[in-house]
């Protein structure tokens, strides 16, 4: 492409709230045939709210929420924020933890009121040697609804399941349909539960889901798709997404996302709407068509 045509296209993109960092990104975007989308904060708004508190036998819902909120207080994860906000709303924000440990991609462990509180996914409880099978039915019911379930254990005993629900961003469904209409395969990638991810994917029209991905493995998944000969565009918002955004042929960050994700990307979608990616691909296709 001529430097002038690239500059013109980048200017048009900027007018649509799409910041393109390099000429190379504009030259590559027209070749993208697979787009990988992070779920939380990219397809969804990323501000989940607590919807369900399901204590196991022998535990009280308010007591459970108070304990897990104390455990989650020092976590910056959106799931933690949802739990703490719900406890505050219900006047259950009364306890504080004395020790706190965050286990990336799994959850948290804290000491609250002399009790050991674990909150996170099944992997977290299994790794602690806790049999959480009595919680499985509740976990599966929440996930089938597209909610993210979190398991709680107190002093080594399974204590209950809580669920949070996120909302789908305006524009996600339309953008995913637009990508498919351009012959692009769309893949959802998330650290979230497989069943939750599948339910959200169904709602937005995505057929291919890679779920329960550990943060450090997101880039590997992108590499695997490239190994199939695909030219991969990736969109993400989180610190966890940065290596995958850098690995992708064209990485796009959500403008409201973390600085680390923005720095790892070629394109920033200022408004956070996935429609910006479709516009960028269209601009690249038009630009590259004109010069051949
Ligand atoms: P995502 O790709 O959706 O941003 P993460 O890798 O951050 O996911 O987290 C993966 C999973 O680990 C979450 O769906 C949740 O089950 C569990 N998890 C992570 N952090 C927390 C936390 N602070 N509290 C409870 N569960 C957590
Ligand atoms: Mg995210």
UniProtKB/TrEMBL annotation:
Domain of life: Bacteria
Annotated compartments: Cell membrane
Family to which this protein belongs: Belongs to the cation transport ATPase (P-type) (TC 3.A.3) family. Type IB subfamily.
Name of the featured protein: C2H2-type domain-containing protein
């Amino acid at each position: 492409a001529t430097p002038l045509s690239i500059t013109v296209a980048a200017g048009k993109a900027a007018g649509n709230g799409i910041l393109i960092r390099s000429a190379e990104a504009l030259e590559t975007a027209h070749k993208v045939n697979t787009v990988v989308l992070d779920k939380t904060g990219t397809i969804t708004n990323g501000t989940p709210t607590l919807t369900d508190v399901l204590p196991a036998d022998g535990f009280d819902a308010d007591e459970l929420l108070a304990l897990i909120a104390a455990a989650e207080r020092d976590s910056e994860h959106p799931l933690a924020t949802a739990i703490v906000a719900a406890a505050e709303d219900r006047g259950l924000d009364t306890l504080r933890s004395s020790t706190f440990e965050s286990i990336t991609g799994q959850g948290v462990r804290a000491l609250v009121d002399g009790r050991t509180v674990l909150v996170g996914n099944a992997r977290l409880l299994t790794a602690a040697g806790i049999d959480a099978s009595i919680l499985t039915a509740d976990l599966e019911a929440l996930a089938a609804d597209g909610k993210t379930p979190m398991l709680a254990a107190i002093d080594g005993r399974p204590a209950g399941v809580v669920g949070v629900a996120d909302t789908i961003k305006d524009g996600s469904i339309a953008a995913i349909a637009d990508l498919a209409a351009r012959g692009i395969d769309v893949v959802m990638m998330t650290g979230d539960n497989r069943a939750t991810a599948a339910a959200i994917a169904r709602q937005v029209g995505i057929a291919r889901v890679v779920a329960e991905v550990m943060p450090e493995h997101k880039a590997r998944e992108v590499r695997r798709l490239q190994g199939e000969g695909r030219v991969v565009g990736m969109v993400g918002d989180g610190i966890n997404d940065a290596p995958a955004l850098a690995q992708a042929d064209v990485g796009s960050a959500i403008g409201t996302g973390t600085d680390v994700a923005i720095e790892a990307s070629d394109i920033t979608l200022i408004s956070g709407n996935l429609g910006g990616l479709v516009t960028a691909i269209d601009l690249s296709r038009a630009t590259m068509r004109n010069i051949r």
